[in-house]
Specification:
CATH topology of the largest domain: Nucleotidyltransferase, domain 5
CATH superfamily of the largest domain: Ribonuclease H-like superfamily/Ribonuclease H
Strand order of the largest sheet: 3-2-1-4-5
Order of helices and strands: HEEEHHEHEHHHHHH
Largest sheet: 5 strands, mixed
CATH architecture of the largest domain: 2-Layer Sandwich
């Protein structure tokens, strides 16, 4: 099934939740103040939507597996990043046919292409590429459903504030850059985890018509009403009445 709008996404996610993985990652600065030409990857988090289970790949965990002391991590970052991306692609290899829900991971600056590029730079070959048509930008899906003004800029942070408030581990892009400079890799990893956790919450609320947005209008209001428990109860009552009327008419006919 091709998913190209918010409505088809909702239908598919309701019917086949096991087909969806949520992904986010953290990295070095997205600007030119890096020692390399492209930003290093510091953590990747993936949540399986149906089960809520999360798998992650992080600088501090990989460094510990490689027995690299804390003070040597920056000097041996190539080894750490290579292993991190290798483990990530080992996970992806048998799941390329699933849908991968992300937040603006759309190009070489920040996206799946960036991950593939860093893997090649570090000597990796034959990365199992996730097909473009299996990548779903949650930001675009929400804009299709609620309009481009569904949250103020920056949208991810604003949407989180509208739906329960900021998570204590959330870091903005600028804060992640500073955390990298301070070698606070666990802090960066926790921020990545909290974001994929929020993606899961957003989808859960979206499917039930309970996502709070800044959008206004009749269409948005109707979407929320028809996804509500009240609407489902009305539908059930209407079905019971219809069956009752049918039975009564049958009795009269007999």
């Amino acid at each position: 099934m091709s998913i190209n709008n918010g409505g088809s996404f909702i239908k598919e996610a309701k019917n086949h939740p096991a087909n969806f993985y949520l992904i986010h990652y953290s990295c070095q600065s997205l600007y030119d103040d890096n020692e390399a030409l492209s930003p290093r990857i510091t953590s990747i988090a993936i949540t399986h939507y149906a089960t809520g289970q999360t798998v992650s790949f992080s600088t501090h965990a990989i460094a510990e597996e490689l027995h690299i002391p804390r003070e040597e991590v920056r000097a041996r970052f190539d080894d750490v990043e290579r292993k991190l991306l290798q483990d990530f692609y080992d996970f992806v290899r048998d799941r390329r046919d699933k849908y991968w829900v992300h937040w603006n991971m759309r190009n070489l600056t920040f996206g799946f292409e960036h991950l593939e590029h860093r893997y090649r730079v570090l000597g990796g070959n034959n990365a199992p590429v996730i097909p473009v048509e299996r990548r779903l930008n949650l930001n675009d899906l929400l804009a299709d459903r609620y309009g481009g003004g569904y949250a103020a800029h920056p949208k991810l942070k604003s949407l989180m504030e509208l739906n329960g408030g900021m998570h204590r581990d959330f870091l903005s892009g600028e804060e992640e850059v500073q955390a990298f400079r301070n070698n606070e890799f666990i802090r960066m990893h926790n921020s990545t985890l909290c974001k994929v956790g929020f993606f899961s919450s957003v989808i859960h609320k979206l499917l039930r018509g309970r996502l709070r947005t800044a959008s206004r209008g009749l269409g948005v209001g109707l979407d929320r009403v028809f996804e509500s428990r009240i609407a489902k109860a009305i539908g059930l009552i209407a079905t019971i009445i219809t069956i009752g009327v049918g039975v009564w008419q049958l009795w009269l006919w007999i």
